[in-house]
Structures are given as structure tokens and as C-alpha cells.
Amino acid sequence: MVEDEDENEEEFPTRPLEPVILLILIVMLLLTTGFEDEDEDDDEKENFLKAVCPGTKAGAGLVWSFAGGLSIIAARHTAMKHNPFQSIYREQFEVVEQRLGNVTLYPHTDQLPLLHRALNLEFLGPLPGYIARVDKRADGFHKILRRNATMMYCSVLNGARADELRLYSLPDADRVARLTIVQQVTESTPLGRVHRFRFYGPDGFFPEIRLSGKRIAFADHVLQRFSQRVPNPLGTDITNLLSSFYGNNLIGLPVGPGRAFVMRHMDSILAFTYKESADEYFLTTCLTVNEMSSLREERPVRAYNFHYGEAFTEPADRSEPVKNMAAYIEIWRQRTPLEAVTSLRPEAKKDLRREWSRLAQNIREIALVEGHGPGSDIQFLDYIPGPRLMEAFPPEPCPEGEKLRARIVAQHPTMKAVIDQHKTDLHDSLIQ
């Protein structure tokens, strides 16, 4: 494994304040302020194996061929890790690990429909109908409400779970955010463990998330170093890694003796070094400004797109993110540290069902405080279907939102700068 190293005028937004973090801040204020207003036939087995890992081929005899050239025979599964499932809709139930030769999957693929059905009921039940029923016919504002709801439920309230399930918000082809369960697929190789992630939604697995045409794999070293070096509330490291990586805009720059994907994280930056092959980016470690021996300018600046499925065409009219590159290099030169993250007050997670029932009724108010309202819009980044969405504010401020924001700021003056910065970063969000 690799060891660590001791536009024109328009830019795509770097979003220094991740949307989940802003949601946490507003949620904290809402909690204190409030608003009144097993046997199968051979064909079935082969079909199952083909579905377990995108890009993995199930050949005759149920042989899997992995990118590293390693093949395994998946003759049976053995459950290893098991945790009690946290859900009122399925009590006395164990979430188990699946083992296929040298590959483990958590949670077990066969359990995903049942787990998702229970969690989706918990998620949708307390939501107002106008958010729970959002579909492709909804306008941009209501799709933003749905997005805020799924991010809050998945990443804020369920960032750390005793059953070790990871939840993630992903938009479908109609830009409607869906709750997904993350299935972690871990392959043991002679050089260490390799991790890939799949996302199971209401209609089954989402298409594989790729980066500018290539698959993505994480060395175990990446997960370890992200957990050690990046401030995370206890138990949320994997959730935050997924949110930070898949929810960000990446540019490629020379870092130390190699190359890395560099991205903004809070007030600082992170770099993920990688090895590139014909069909895959293999991430080798996670660096903060303290571990980067150098970060060099490069033209043209290479920007990347996350997308669903294999097909990918580079955006023809994307501006070169020169200013972003300059900002990242300046942060590295200043050695700007990662600040401690904000978490919900401890008692807010003691009764998740009670808190979600309460917060779900305030989703609209949260969006209004952010600056959204009727006339807001939401689109895929560069109009490429994938996990990245960009939001646009309405042409005219919403009077109701202005009043709510004034009320929040009056009680918590520091929130004005936070909300204004967030709005600046999102302004018009590439929606022409």
C-alpha cells in the first residue's frame, strides 16, 4: 500500500460549508428555538452474483473476477458480523454480514429489501405529505425540501448507528432524493483490504457511481486515515467520508510525488491520492494540509464528474476552475486546519423517532431560512445524472423566509454570516 507523504470568470461552487453541516447548525437552533407554526437453482444464483458488485463478472461455475485479477468461487455465503437492527418496524432482527470467498458484504444482500422497507417507513412516516409524496412532477422547491429531509435523516440523525448501517441520500433520474442503504463491499487482497460502496434504494441498487467514466475503489488506508485525521463525531467517520467525497467537486492536482483528488472540506482541504488504471481510480490514502509535502499548480485544471453508470461524456462548456485551484493552494500554504465539527446535542439522539417526528415538520422552515422558496430550482451538476446536485435560489426573496431568518439571526447573530456565505456559494448554482 502507498504510504503517506510527511475560467473564464465563472467557477463551479466549492461550497466551503457542506449542506449537511448547515443542516446540523439549523437543526440545533430549531431544537432550542422551535417553530410553532436459502436454496436456489443455478440460474437464480448466477443472477444474484451478477447483481452483487457492479463491474464484477459472474462466470460459469459462479466464479467472480475482480479488477485486481483475483478470482473467487462463490459457492455459499457465511454470515459473520451481526448487529441488532435499530427499527421499530422490525424488532428482534439481526443485520448480518455476507461472505463470498475473500469478499465480504455488509449488510447481507438478501436483507436489503427488508431493511430498506423498514427504514423508509420510519423516514417517510413523520414527513408532511407534500414532502413524502414528491415525485418527478414536483417543482424545484419541493425537490429541495425532499433533498433536505433525506440528508437530515441519513447523515445528521443516522450518522452513527449501533447496527453499523450507513444511510445516504441519492437523487434518482428525476432529481428526487431517495433514502439509500450503503452496502460496503470489502475484498481482501495480498496488499490489504479494498473497499467499494453500493447504494440500495426503493427500486433496488442505484447504478454504480463512477468518476468521469471510471470505477472507484478505496484502500483500507483511506478509511483509517480519514477516521484519524478528519474531525468526526463518534461513529460517523464512514458516513462523513461518503458525504464528503461523493458530495464534493474534485479537481486533480500534483501532490507530493504523485497526484490526488483535492476538495474543499469545511475551511480547509483534503487530498485523496490515487492510482489510475484503464477503468478505475484506486484511492490510496487521505491527506490533510499537514501531510501534503507539496501542492502544485497545473494548467489546464482537471475537473471531474460523478455520474451514474458507465456512459460518460465530458461537459463541453464547463469553465476551468482556476480560482478554486488557487484557493486550495493558498489554504495549503497557510496550513489552514480542519475545525472541529458540530454535532447534535446528546439528548437529541436518545429518542431518534421522537426527534425525527419533530424535525420533519420543520423541513420547510429550514429551506426558507437557507433562502429557498417558490421559484427555487435544482439540477444535476453539469446536467449529468449522478449524486451531485446544484441548487438555485428564487429570483425574488421569499417574504416568509426573510422573517424566519431574521428571527434566527436575532437570537443567534453568528448565523447571519453562516447563512450568507452558504447562499453566496450556491447562488444560481450553474443553472442557466
Proportion of residues in helical segments: 25-40%
Q: From the structure provided, what is the oligomeric state, counting identical versus distinct chains?
A: single chain
Enumerate the spans where pLDDT stays under 50 for 5 or more consecutive residues. Answer: 1-17, 34-79, 345-349, 428-432
Taken as a percent bin, the fraction of beta residues is: 15-25%
Number of strands: 21
Q: In one word, what is the shape?
A: globular
Number of domains: 2
Biggest sheet character: 12 strands, mixed
The helix count comes to 12
Computed structural class: alpha+beta
Average pLDDT, to the nearest integer? Answer: 83
Determine the N-to-C terminus distance: 44 Å
**What is the gyration radius calculated from CA atoms?**
22 Å
Question: What do these coordinates show?
Answer:
With 432 residues, this protein is α+β, with helices and mostly antiparallel strands. The chain folds into 2 domains: 369 residues, no CATH class; 36 residues, no CATH class. 31% of the residues lie in helices and 24% in strands. It contains 12 helices and 21 strands. Strands 6, 7, 8, 9, 10, 11, 13, 14, 15, 16, 17 and 18 form a 12-stranded mixed beta sheet that branches. Strands 1-2-3 form a 3-stranded antiparallel beta sheet. It has a two-stranded antiparallel ribbon with strand order 4-5. α1 packs across α5, α5 packs across α10 and α10 packs across α11. The N terminus and C terminus are likely disordered.
